[in-house]
Design brief:
Shape: globular
Strand order of the largest sheet: 5-4-1-6-11-8-12
CATH superfamily: Spore Coat Polysaccharide Biosynthesis Protein SpsA, Chain A
Number of domains: 1
Largest sheet: 7 strands, mixed
CATH class: Alpha Beta
Structural class: alpha/beta
Number of strands: 13
CATH architecture: Alpha-Beta Complex
Helix content: 25-40%
Length: 235
């Protein structure tokens, strides 16, 4: 299995930290966020990971070049951001015919990669993709999911004041050829996965709930909570 880590964002909500540090390298307990992702994926058996770059790209490139995982990481630069779906389209040859993992690398998480992949492999035949889900303590700031008895997504409630529950989209997906084809059908290079490709798939998305930790560190309050909640690396 291969993975795409979306890491090109500007991180504007984390300024002034992200004036000099790309969001994917913001440290948690002194360790860059991207390093947590590399350990999580590669220790779970992911073969290779593609990281897209844009903002402060040379900083990311230098960091990856010094990583112990550098031989399993590939970088692709986007002079202009293509959107999540556009990045997938521009690099579809990298993933070939196999299903692959797509993740927003601005989340701090320790989900079970193997369990997510296994759930995706065992999904009902009509299901097009599998979405990682998590329980949030801030439902009104997330995309809240409504599921049926099979765990299939029946509705999205995106950042509404009083959503029906606290099970949220974790922005980690297992996708394959059908989802890529749906992105390609827009006929343009810039496509957004979450707002354009995913909504028409309601009823055909399997939600897999993580029992582990998951938090978007995209603003100072969330970053501070991550420092307080997430265990520091050993050693």
């Amino acid at each position: 299995m291969r993975a795409l880590l979306l890491a090109g964002g500007l991180g504007t909500r984390l300024r002034p930290i992200t004036d000099t540090i790309p969001k994917c390298l913001v440290p948690i307990h002194g360790r860059p966020l991207l390093d947590y992702w590399f350990d999580l994926l590669f220790n779970a058996g992911v073969e290779r990971a593609l990281v897209n770059t844009h903002y402060l790209a040379p900083v990311v490139e230098r960091h990856v070049a010094a990583s112990p995982w550098r031989d399993r990481v590939d970088l692709v630069h986007e002079p202009e951001l293509l959107g999540t779906g556009g990045t997938i389209l521009a690099n579809q040859a990298y993933f070939g015919a196999a299903d692959f993992l797509v993740a927003h690398a601005d989340n701090l998480t320790d989900f079970d990669v193997r369990a997510l992949a296994a759930a995706h492999a065992a999904r009902p035949a009509h299901v097009a993709m599998t979405m990682l889900a998590f329980r949030t303590d801030e439902p009104s700031s997330c995309g809240i999911l409504q599921l049926d008895s099979q765990g299939l997504v029946q509705a999205f409630h995106e950042k509404v004041p009083n959503p029906p529950g606290n099970l949220a989209n974790a922005a980690v997906y297992m996708i394959g050829a059908e989802v890529v084809a749906r992105a390609a059908a827009f006929g343009r290079p810039v496509v957004d996965l979450s707002t354009e490709v995913i909504p028409p798939l309601v009823g055909r998305i399997l939600a897999f709930e993580t029992a582990g930790y998951h938090r978007d560190i995209g603003n100072p309050e969330s970053l501070a909570r991550a420092h307080a909640e997430f265990p520091a690396p050993r050693g």
